[in-house]
User: Fold this.
Amino acid sequence: MSTLVLKDGRIIDVNGDRTGDVVIDQDTGLIVAVGTGLAADHELDCEGLVISPGFIDLHVHLREPGLEAAETILSGSRAAVRGGFTAVVAMPNTTPTTDSVAVVEQVLAAGRKALCEIVPSAAISVDRKGEQLSPMAELMDSGVRIFTDDGNGVQDAKFMRSALEYAGGLPNDGHHVVLAQHCEVEALSKGGVMNEGEWSARLGLGGQPAEAEDLMVMRDIALCRLTGVRIHFQHLSTAGSVAMVRAAKAGGLPVTAEATPHHFSLTDACCAGFDPVFKVHPPLRTDEDVAAIKQGLADGTIDAIATDHAPHTPESKERSFDEAPPGMLGLETAFAVARDELDMSLQELLALFTSGPADVAGLGDRHGASLQSGRPANIAVLDLDHEWSVAGREMASPAINTPFEGRALKGKARHTFFQGEQVLNNFEVTR
Assistant:
């Protein structure tokens, strides 16, 4: 047995904040002891560093299959572990769409070579068209627990009701099924390339009103109340949607939500220079919306920080603002941006990357909860004092479309362990 002790680190998980050691059995990939004064075959000095459960990202576009020039599952996993993530949920808007067991198996096969766990999601509807339910029961048998038409919201209310009722009736072996909704009424957002408001008017660009998101959140909260089936709201971006989710939770409805770093750190004013790197879906909103997202994260309305990591090839992002595809890189910058922007304790912040998303996705048996003996060694070791500057060309993704280019940040994953293997060592991926 080969063991490694993470020595004298600041351990933060659901059990609290304390100083101690974590011993990993690198043969089995399990944590074998947590305490003080522990020894092992090898030692990694973690004095001055934070030892946390590995992060979980509920919302990542890995582009494989079909768009590997922008990202592959392997390159995306490298970006993930550089960000401290040990599990990422792969979105299904691939080519072909992840709406069949065959494509799920393709994603899982590629994921076996990755540096973190690749959790496949599948589409709610065939080809994400909102017309025919995907074969959810078969997809569940292949391991899928999260269904979403992300990139599009399910437009038809009756179809969404049917999807919720069908999902709610599936046998789940104790692992809850999650229907995750991209909230956008396309009849209102069509033709819009940024937030509708003062800046879209100034720039002469088509706008997407906040109401396009708010109306679908309102509808799906009503459907959740009608069916009693859990629903998860993706990348909230408006003050109105946050307020409605807060009220739904207060009313006891089984709803959860996520928010992205760019939606609590950037506003539609960033689009003033017509730089397509700031084009994203849903769009960057106003100062008031940003403040509401921050408050929602602080008071527990929003359960998780998710990146909506969306790589695009440089040539596609170099088109005009109207024609460029929406999306931003997020995996490598998420923790540092969140720490810079959010006024909360480190333990509260880490919960948004660990136990919060673990609860949403049902991954708490192996990710994101506590560091204790017998659990898989999925661990992020964070250097809170490390100062660095964001550079898209230095990231692991083939894409470079980060909205934080040149921004000075503080705090980064120094080491990441996935199933006991050190996949990040002193900021560098190991394979």
The longest helix spans residues 211-227.
